[in-house]
Design brief:
- The complex is a heterodimer.
- Chain A contains two helices and nine strands.
- In chain A, the strands form two sheets. Chain A has a five-stranded mixed sheet with strand order 3-1-9-5-7, with no helix packed on it.
- By secondary structure, chain A is of the alpha+beta class.
- By secondary structure, chain B is mainly alpha-helical.
- The chains are: A alpha+beta, B mainly alpha.
- At the A-B interface, helix 1 of A face helix 1, helix 8, helix 9 and helix 10 of B.
């Protein structure tokens, strides 16, 4: 009887030691999950969100074709700004990086925040038009009578089908008003 | 031979001391179980007080009682206190009292570790409560402590991290002790399949605890390092990822809810056969169902984070595994109903709570199935629908089972019958006020009311007022329970050894109240 209880105590201790190892191992496993997560989900995130616009097409320029890009500028409603592209058109090889500039002036006597919204004609072209840098990514604050020249950097996807020989890139500036407190 | 005697668990017993020293130095499983249960009850009142303050603020739209910062601290601490300092210790208390009695063991396998695992708890509780009084107040990042908010909070966050470390160590020691007790200390003849369901469910829960609690400890340690030692596990600016925190947290957090519900299943599986006067239906399917829940429970965690931007494949995987858990849970509910079928039923308070558990917990389970579906979840994420759902599982599930279990075994613990009439009042008021509190929240959530915000749009007023009335009724009703327990300890009709006519199992073979030492000579189970 006594010997038996002795052996129970000893076997309890051995069991405890083994289970403690499990706990320690799981503590370590928690840390292992950090690099594991980067490996598994990090790769997943890259393919999902990292700008494929920027990364992919730059390498391949298609010199056999040209696409005509026309630039347009509009100001919406009561916004007293003048706004124009510094060039009317470009002849662009698909895959080629293009730099152009727009210029805008605040004609009013007050500082105004404007936000440009781009659109494309024909609309099907939008899928092949990759902007890398654009003043439309942020709203623009112009002081009274301030003039600013702003860049657009883009490229046309070489996958663009042949029935889109001309694309119009059009911007419209809207005024951004601070929300009135009700 | 003297050495051998000292090593026998039953004999590891200091001379019986009176006063506070008895409780500080005790290694007796019954004393420690009592300590756990009293600690849990007092923390239930602390966490309940926080909940009532939250509900009082939400009685009407606008800010009346607390500042928004303090409101956020309250919702956070309510969750932490209830999960870690009330429900967990309550189940460990039940395990301490009941497992040796049910298995025919003289005590837990490691009495001194048992003492340590309890006495760590008050220090953690003090750390948590004291964090309200440091600059910046307690942590307000939600009980899930999501980064990056938790990386930015004040010293209250560090205190919460250390409290979680302490509570985690206590739980791990408790789990080790329970596993060894169940697997090594059973009376001769008590095979695994003769073991009561309560032991089975605790065994699976303890293995879950042992595997996920260390991961939480690691996670909050990473958080601590991000906060003070310049690492960037979760800080996107330094190349870390806040979503990683969510994965790590829920890798612990979801199994945690099964850790909290499995022993509750065990308690219900003990009560229903007794008051149906029939053996538990389908024990052979109950055990695999329990194990299935444990295993599946470890592979569904990301259903808490469907809105973080997971690939569709991952969303589908976590959706299907989550839906799959409904199968073993359904097996259990079916078995309980089949146990009652054609039974000779009586409705004493423990049985009422067990049936109440079946009814309300199933609502919690069904709404969980709805939330498991990605399109629905995206819609209901962070709304009061979630709040209602998890209170139906955590309050209507675990708390109802804990109440039922307390009434069921209280005569064995105290030697007195509790006041049956008061118990029935406690049950009915609890059931009515619980539903009055949480049913409105389902509708609030469906209507789009977000959780964890101290103010709300006017159209949510009526349902919120109802919920607040329900919450205060629910809170006050629990004082009835506390009174009934204390009354039962002090006086009451003498309980027989078997207590309940239909009760079966080793714990009912010892006299009531259970003597300080039981089964020093192991009983023999045929």
């Amino acid at each position: 009887m006594m010997v038996k209880t002795m052996s129970i105590v000893a076997s309890n201790r051995r069991f405890l030691a083994k289970l403690s190892l499990v706990a320690l191992g799981m503590f370590g496993f928690g840390y292992l999950l950090a690099p594991l997560y980067d490996r598994l989900c990090g790769a997943e995130r890259a393919t999902q969100t990292a700008a494929k616009d920027a990364a992919r097409p730059v390498t391949r320029v298609d010199p056999t074709r040209t696409v005509a890009v026309q630039y347009d500028a509009n100001v919406h409603g009561s916004l007293h700004w003048s706004f124009r592209p510094l060039q009317k058109t470009s002849q662009v090889h698909p895959g080629e990086l293009v730099h152009i500039r727009y210029e805008m002036t605040n004609e009013s006597n007050e500082p105004v925040i404007g936000q440009a919204v781009p659109s494309y004609a024909p609309p099907a072209a939008a899928a092949y038009f990759h902007k890398i840098e654009c003043f439309c990514f942020k709203s623009q604050l112009l002081r009274p009578h301030e003039t600013r020249s702003v860049p657009v950097v883009f490229l046309i996807d070489p996958a663009i089908p042949g029935d889109l020989p001309t694309i119009t890139l059009s911007y419209t500036f809207f005024e951004v008003r601070p929300r009135k407190s009700a | 031979m003297q050495v051998a005697l000292d090593n026998v668990p039953a004999v590891v017993q200091l001379p019986h001391q009176g006063g506070i020293l008895r409780w500080i130095r005790t290694t007796n499983h019954k004393d420690i179980g009592t300590l756990y249960l009293f600690f849990s009850m007092s923390m239930l009142l602390v966490g309940g007080l926080m909940a009532l303050t939250i509900r009082a603020e939400l009685f009407q739209p606008g800010l009346q009682i607390v500042r928004p910062e303090f409101f956020n601290q309250l919702t956070t601490m309510h969750g932490l206190v209830m999960v870690f300092a009330s429900i967990m210790p309550a189940f460990v208390g039940f395990a301490n009292w009941q497992l040796p009695l049910m298995l025919g063991a003289p005590d837990m396998a490691f009495p001194r570790l048992n003492n340590l695992s309890f006495w760590l708890l008050p220090f953690a509780a003090v750390l948590l409560v004291a964090s309200f009084f440091v600059p910046g107040g307690a942590t307000a990042a939600g009980w899930t402590l999501y980064a990056p908010l938790s990386v930015q909070m004040g010293p209250g966050m560090d205190m919460a991290i250390f409290a979680i470390h302490i509570l985690g160590i206590s739980s791990i020691i408790g789990a080790l002790n329970i596993i060894v007790t169940i697997l090594n200390m059973r009376a001769p003849g008590m095979t695994l399949f003769k073991m009561p369901m309560f032991a089975w469910t605790w065994l699976v829960a303890a293995f879950l605890l042992l595997t996920v609690m260390p991961v939480l400890a690691g996670t909050v340690t990473m958080l601590l390092f991000d906060r003070h030692f310049g690492t960037h596990f979760f800080d996107a600016a330094g190349g870390g990822d806040p979503v990683l925190f969510q994965h790590l947290f829920w890798f612990f957090g979801h199994p945690e809810v099964y850790i909290l519900i499995l022993p509750a299943f065990g308690i219900v599986s003990a009560i229903i056969p007794t008051f149906s006067r029939k053996p538990l239906f389908g024990l052979r399917s109950m055990v695999p169902a329990t194990c299935m829940i444990g295993i599946l429970g470890g592979s569904v965690w990301a259903h808490h984070m469907f809105t973080v931007g997971m690939p569709v494949g991952a969303q589908l995987f976590f959706m299907y595994t989550t839906l799959l858990i409904a199968v073993p849970t359904g097996v259990k509910v079916f078995n309980w109903l089949a146990t009652m079928w054609q039974g000779s039923l009586t409705f004493e308070t423990p049985m009422l709570f067990a049936i109440g558990f079946l009814f309300v917990f199933t609502i919690g389970g069904l709404t969980g199935v709805m939330l498991a579906m990605v399109p629905v979840d995206v819609q209901l994420h962070q709304t009061y629908y979630i709040v209602a759902h998890f209170h139906y599982t955590m309050v209507a599930g675990t708390l109802f089972a804990l109440f039922g279990g307390t009434y069921y075994w209280l005569p064995k613990w105290t030697g007195h019958m509790y006041d049956e009439k008061l118990g029935q009042w406690h049950f009915w008021l609890t059931l009515i006020f619980f539903n009055l509190t949480f049913i409105p929240m389902f509708f609030l959530g469906l209507a789009g009311m977000p959780r964890r915000i101290p103010d709300y749009a006017l159209q949510f007023t009526n349902l919120n007022s109802l919920a607040t009335i329900g919450a205060f009724g629910f809170g006050l009703t629990q004082l009835l329970f506390a009174y009934n327990v204390i009354k039962c300890i002090r006086s009451g009709e003498r309980a027989t050894a078997q207590v309940w006519e239909g009760a079966k199992g080793l714990e009912w073979t010892v006299p009531s109240p259970a003597p300080h030492h039981t089964f020093s000579t192991p009983p023999v189970v045929e």
